[in-house]
Amino acid sequence: RDYSYNAIMSDVEASQKRLGIDTFEVLYIHDPTDFPMADVLGPNRALGALRKLQNQGIVRYVGAAANDPETNADYIETGEFDAAIVPEAWSLLNQLAAERILPAAEKHNVGLVIATPVERGLLATGPSTGTHYLARTFSQTCLDHVSRIQDLCSSYKIPMIAAALQWCTQHPQIAATIPGARTPDEALANAQAGEVDIPDDF
Predict the structure, then answer these.
(1) pTM above 0.70?
(2) Are 87 and 43 in contact (CB under 8 A)?
(3) Bridge partners of 24?
(4) In the chain, helix, strand, coil percent, each to 5?
(5) Measured over all CA atoms, what is the biggest interatomic distance in the chain, rounded to whole angstroms?
(6) Could you give the angle at the alpha carbon of 193 between the alpha carbons of 190 and 198, nearest 5°?
(7) How far apart are CA 10 and CA 116, in angstroms?
(8) What is the distance between the alpha carbons of residues 113 and 98, in angstroms, rounded to a whole number?
(9) How far apart are CA 69 and CA 90, in angstroms?
(10) Coil, helix or strand at residue 101
């Protein structure tokens, strides 16, 4: 990973050529975990390059994206970003983002995209014996809690994935989720989940 000014300029130019487009709605500084912030945010570093591109009209919004919630919180709290991708911090099972990420997003008006909103599929299918959740291990207490959520959804005839995804986006700073899909059917189910009518009493 190279967060130098010249590397970012070169990477964006290469992306323009590959994609056949001149402008971008948003570009994210990806996964700067374990790098000193000064090596990323300085005027001659990644942020400086993206600000230059923003001033030129090549990118509309500048974002941060890290797989580590603490790193995301650090970057959002700087007030330097328009958007952020936040995994592993906001779902029906995990409200870590409430501690630092959401307050900072509200303070600086940062739009958030929530990754891992269905907890590696657990909130899409419910507990399933023998299922591996991509480096995640859920306690039996957690699995029992998901079973109760699943029963509640069944009683309302609401797909659990719809409840999980729509719950995430109720917060005003959250613009979208990235549920992930391995198959066309899963992608379709994810899209349809956003259209399910969920009553307030649920």
Answers:
(1) yes
(2) no
(3) 59
(4) 45, 15, 40
(5) 56
(6) 160
(7) 30
(8) 15
(9) 10
(10) helix
